[in-house]
């Protein structure tokens, strides 16, 4: 009896197994979305698959900025030759809110009109809208930058609010992905490219705030992109122009650089961008194009970094996008063989794809007919690599599946085929006009700015500046800084914080053009010496702040001496990286604002016209703090090292700290 029952159970199990196999054969395995994507992939040609892995830019066409697709019919036709995975837009493509809304709409419509494709697949439309010093919506809300967020008491709330506001503005004009947040840990004071784009030098804080920022983006169905894996924070070289190298072991980066990425992956990260950085103590040595030179591939091209560490060790199976392949760290490094532009870039693509990267971002700017031909040859060259077995078909299919699943998850693949959902263009334009750079968004931006301002030094209660001071000089860096600085001064006058009969002069010390960068005539020297108070602005970016020959270094040290010799007080406002606080310790007071972009824009123009919205709220809040309208409550999100002088007379950042993370006076 028992044996018969066992036979029946066994037969039933066999039947279930056979039926299951038949269903899989008929409909594919996985979720309904996976089966849908598999069905699409099975119909795609190799050209279509490779094209789906490519996101070009189109900043210009024949040296004219591309802002209206109808005005560039040759580009419209060029974009229809291949169904690219997406298009990335830059500042050259954006002149105003309505304009960029119409351009994005037209791009999706043009893509939907491509003939002879197996399936119409709408574009990913990513953009670098980080907030702070990196923005693209020139008539939008700039927000405050990540390091400013990290300085606030309610940093996680402010990070999420920032992502939400930027996400709402991006969605309103038609973008569907943001190449943000930056989750690099800025643990190198000489870093020339990350800086205030980082939340902190504390990896746990970076992780927390990065995920909060991404949650804000997701509220508006904007895909967040965590960058730059495996970490660009401890570099002294800008990968746009060179190849940075990080001399750290795997154990060291696991304890620091990888912490935010690991936590983001555990929290369901959808997209991660790579960094063009080498890790000699972790990676495998390779031979470069000349057949002699030994070295290491940037992480973007490294199977060790992408497949072994990101995919296997960290367990990530989402979309990996290469940082722009046109950057100097890739384009100028002669890493692989190639006597022509196409051959070289195809060989780069082979290494990038085989490393485990899914999206080839910006192999070249699609800006003239020659580049149209380049892309034909580029895609054909990658096809040839697949057909020869140098790139496996499985790797291509794997990447395309990740891309299409991501598009499906965010509804990009499920719309009416043109990527514009069910909105007509006029509805979207109306929405963008009421959303981008709105009063509510600017009010939130201002609130965060005020809470970020950090007071590091205040000898003899120099701040707030007393209302009886009769001679005040606002010493900006650039002549155009006067737009924001004069606005802030007038606001202080309205509040009665500057005496009605006070003599307030605005000047500058740095020439942005010409060989002589120093603007420090005798007239300015005399003006500073006669002042009761001088408020001087410093912009630190990487190690240049330590250069004794730099115009800023000379001007500010001279200004402090001239003011003190005249019996006045000098207040330093740090516009960007806070490490300059260690350089100008002879200032009477030091205030940190964490952002120096957008000072040329008059805040009263916000929302009034094209390009007028992206003001700098941080500097206005800093001036408010100097005159007592705002009480500083920010705390340092990074450690500030001491400045030391070497035997050669050059300055460098030491190992000890002059101000520690978490410090800030009230």
Structural class, please?
alpha/beta
**What is the radius of gyration?**
27 Å
CATH topology of the largest domain: TIM Barrel
- The percent of residues in helical segments reads 25-40%
Features:
666 residues, TIM Barrel, 2 domains, six-stranded mixed β-sheet, five-stranded parallel β-sheet, 21 helices, 19 strands, disordered N terminus
Task: Outline the structure in words.
This protein has 666 residues and is of the alpha/beta class. It folds into two domains: 384 residues, Alpha-Beta Barrel (TIM Barrel); 218 residues, Glycoside hydrolase family 3 C-terminal domain (Rossmann fold, 3-Layer(aba) Sandwich), CATH 3.40.50. It is 39% helix and 13% strand. It has 21 helices and 19 strands. The protein has a six-stranded mixed beta sheet, with helices on both faces. A five-stranded parallel beta sheet has the order 4-5-6-7-10. Helix 18 links the parallel strand 13 and strand 14. The longest helix is centred in the N-terminal third of the chain and has 26 residues. The protein is globular. The N terminus is likely disordered.
Present the secondary structure layout:
Blueprint: H1 2-27, H2 32-43, H3 46-52, E1 54-57, E2 60-61, E3 64-65, H4 73-79, H5 97-112, E4 126-127, H6 146-151, H7 155-173, E5 177-178, H8 203-218, E6 223-229, H9 250-254, H10 258-266, E7 271-274, E8 286-287, E9 294-295, H11 303-313, E10 319-321, H12 328-331, H13 341-355, E11 360-365, H14 369-388, H15 393-409, H16 425-435, H17 439-452, E12 454-458, E13 471-476, H18 482-494, E14 503-508, H19 522-529, E15 533-538, H20 551-565, E16 569-574, E17 589-592, H21 617-626, E18 640-645, E19 651-659
Parallel strand pairs: 1-11, 4-5, 5-6, 6-7, 7-10, 13-14, 13-15, 15-16, 16-17
Antiparallel strand pairs: 2-3, 8-9, 12-17, 18-19
Helix pairs in contact: 2-15, 3-14, 5-16, 7-8, 7-16, 7-17, 8-10, 11-13, 13-14, 17-21, 18-21, 19-20
């Amino acid at each position: 009896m028992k044996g018969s029952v066992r036979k029946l159970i066994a037969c039933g199990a066999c039947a279930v197994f056979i039926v299951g196999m038949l269903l899989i054969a008929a409909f594919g395995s996985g979720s309904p979305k996976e089966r849908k994507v598999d069905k699409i992939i099975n119909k795609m040609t190799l050209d279509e698959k490779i094209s789906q892995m490519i996101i070009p830019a189109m900043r210009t066409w024949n040296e004219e900025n591309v802002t209206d697709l109808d005005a560039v019919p040759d580009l419209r036709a060029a974009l229809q030759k291949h169904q690219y995975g997406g298009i990335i837009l830059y500042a050259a493509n954006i002149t105003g809110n309505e304009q960029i809304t119409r351009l994005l709409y037209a791009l999706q419509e043009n893509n939907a009109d491509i003939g002879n494709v197996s399936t119409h697949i709408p574009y990913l439309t990513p953009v670098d809208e980080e907030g702070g010093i990196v923005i693209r919506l020139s008539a939008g809300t700039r927000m405050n930058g990540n390091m400013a967020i990290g300085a606030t008491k309610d940093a996680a709330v402010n990070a999420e609010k920032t992502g939400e506001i930027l996400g709402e503005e991006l969605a309103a004009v038609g973008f569907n992905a943001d190449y943000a947040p930056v989750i690099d840990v800025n643990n190198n004071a000489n870093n020339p490219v990350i800086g205030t784009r980082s939340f902190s030098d504390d990896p746990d804080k970076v992780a927390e705030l990065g995920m909060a920022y991404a949650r804000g983006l997701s509220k508006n169905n904007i895909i967040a992109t965590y960058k730059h894996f495996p970490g660009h924070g401890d570099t002294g070289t800008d990968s746009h122009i060179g190849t940075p190298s990080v001399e750290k072991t795997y154990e060291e980066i696991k304890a620091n650089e990888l912490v935010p990425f690991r936590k983001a992956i555990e929290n369901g990260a959808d997209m991660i961008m790579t960094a063009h950085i080498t890790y000699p103590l972790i990676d495998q040595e390779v031979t470069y194009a000349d057949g002699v030179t030994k070295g290491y591939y940037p992480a973007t091209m490294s199977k060790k970094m992408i497949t072994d560490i990101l995919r296997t060790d960290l367990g990530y199976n989402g979309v990996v996008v290469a940082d722009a392949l046109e950057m100097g760290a890739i384009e100028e490094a002669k890493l692989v063989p190639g006597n022509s532009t196409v051959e070289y870039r195809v060989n780069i693509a082979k290494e990038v794809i085989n490393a485990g990267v899914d999206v080839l971002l910006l192999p070249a700017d699609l800006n003239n007919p020659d580049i149209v031909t380049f892309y034909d040859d580029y895609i054909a060259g990658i096809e040839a690599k697949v057909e020869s077995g140098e790139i496996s078909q499985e790797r291509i299919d794997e990447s395309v599946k990740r891309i299409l699943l991501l598009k499906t998850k965010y509804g990009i693949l499920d719309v009416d085929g043109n990527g514009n959902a069910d909105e007509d263009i006029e509805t979207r334009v109306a929405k963008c006009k009421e959303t981008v750079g709105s009063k509510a968004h600017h009010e939130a931006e201002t609130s965060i700015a005020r809470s970020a301002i950090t007071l590091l030094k205040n000898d003899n209660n120099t701040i707030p500046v007393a209302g009886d001071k009769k001679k005040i000089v606002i010493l900006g860096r650039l002549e155009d800084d006067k737009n924001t600085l004069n606005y802030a001064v007038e606001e202080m006058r309205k509040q009665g914080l500057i005496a009605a009969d006070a003599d307030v002069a605005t000047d500058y010390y740095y020439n942005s053009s010409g060989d002589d960068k120093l603007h420090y005539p005798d007239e300015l020297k005399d003006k500073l010496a006669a002042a009761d108070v001088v408020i001087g602005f410093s912009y630190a970016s990487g190690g240049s702040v330590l250069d004794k020959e730099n115009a800023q270094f000379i001007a500010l040290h001279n200004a402090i001496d001239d003011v003190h010799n005249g019996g006045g007080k000098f207040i330093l406002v740090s516009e960007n990286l806070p490490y300059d606080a260690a350089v100008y310790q002879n200032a009477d007071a030091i205030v940190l604002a964490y952002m120096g972009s957008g000072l040329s824009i008059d805040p009263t123009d916000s929302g009034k016209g094209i390009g007028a919205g992206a003001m700098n709220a941080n500097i206005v809040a800093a001036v408010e703090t100097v005159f007592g309208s705002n009480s500083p409550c920010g705390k340092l999100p990074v450690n500030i090292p001491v400045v030391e002088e070497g035997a050669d007379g050059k300055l460098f950042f030491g190992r000890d700290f002059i101000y520690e993370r978490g410090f800030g006076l009230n």
